[in-house]
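Cross-posting from the modeling subforum.

Setting up a comparison between two proteins and wanted a second pair of eyes on the formatting. Protein 1 (sequence, then structure tokens):
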Amino acid sequence: MIVLILLWVAPGWGAPLTLSGVESEVLAELNFARTEPVRYAKEVLEPMRRYYRNGEIVDPPWRKARPGLIQVVETQEGEAALEEAITAMKRAKPAPALTPSYGLTLAARDYREEQAKQARIGHIGRNGSTPADRISRYGQWRELAGENLFYGDADRMIGRFVVMALIIDDGVPDRGHRQAIMEPRYRRVGIGFGTHPLYGYLCVQKFAAEFFDTP
């Protein structure tokens, strides 16, 4: 299985918002990591040590057991990335919980659908759209905004897998996805989750310090 993760950095009307089951799981995991980083390191990251062997993840917990089959996930950095994430989260200061945004969620879902239809990856969308362009279609952001993209596949505990992979950030030298998740200035989030023809699933996360929905 290949996991690909990409990052971009750059008062609403109160419209009703319903997150899907997995989107709700992702939101809960984001807020678990943000508000209780030390506990997240101990309860989520440290138990992953048992699955790492010689730079690979063997029979990972997000995969259902298949009799007679050993499931292996290749990594770029091996256990070093996991250990670095554990240390970083234990040192991290808690950040405020994120509140889901109607406009940011629409932007996230739209981009997930666009990429799925066109089998695309990356932060530059159809006709050259940027994350800022897509967020601005649904409202106005202030101070800070960002976009995380997760591509990967899982059989279960999908929301936990998405956030854990972003926090470990294997193969990303600056750990930009973890930085986005733990950025204390972010207060609003939009989440779009669904299938992707190349990688199984795509989860788009849109962050903003402030976001005002377009009426």
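Protein 2 (same layout):
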Amino acid sequence: MSDAPVSPTTSTGCLAGRHVLLTGAGGGIGLAIAEACIAEGARCTVVDRADGAPDAVRAVAARHPDAIAYQGADVTDSAAIARCIAAAQARFGAIHTLVNNAAVFDMAPLLDADEASFDRLFAVNVKGMFFVMQAVLREMVRAGTRGASVVNLASQAGRRGEALVAHYCATKAAVISYTQSAALAMAPHGIRVNGIAPGVVDTPMWAGVDALFARYENLPIGEKKRQVGLAVPLGRMGTPADMAGAVVFLASDAARYITAQTLNVDGGSVMG
């Protein structure tokens, strides 16, 4: 039996007629989630930092011109996010699901970790995540959107500390905590808030991560990536498509009684 990742070949239409807004979706995990949502009948607003749509987004738009729109915005800029949400709703109507994916990564030995890195990671991964979520939730409450939900992207790094990754781990732990608090606050409105905690995922970002590990652990380029893939109980790194299926499930009515949870999607790396 092959251990290669398998992409779904059939659609259930479980997100038909819904509008999904995704941050950090110019490529990688975010865009894979958008494509999976479109395959299930959703219309997607994808948000990333670039003013114009990246090539990968344009390629998806060429295949699904009526189902995807791009908005350039910095998630740390509340005014830009407000404009983005307004434009998204003008195009596709009320937002049914927010997928909070925008994030940045950095690492350093604990005694060398600096304030600039701290500020950057917390600005995007925590401040940006929270205030995007707050702004979209306000619109969901105002509109009384049926089946509304939020899915925040945390990380297995938010489940445990790592000696070289203190700032990043702390930001992702904050995502898990805010997910729980927001779920309790939104439950009276019938809005669900959940998260997923990806493990190691093979995306272009891993080239930079691998280079940092090579620097701080004195490894050859590519060795850390090889090691982490082998360490996963299922025997490989995850793919963006592996993350997308979990998000589609949490956004759908199949998860209508699930809230305040962060689902590990990591091949068995973290248990519990």
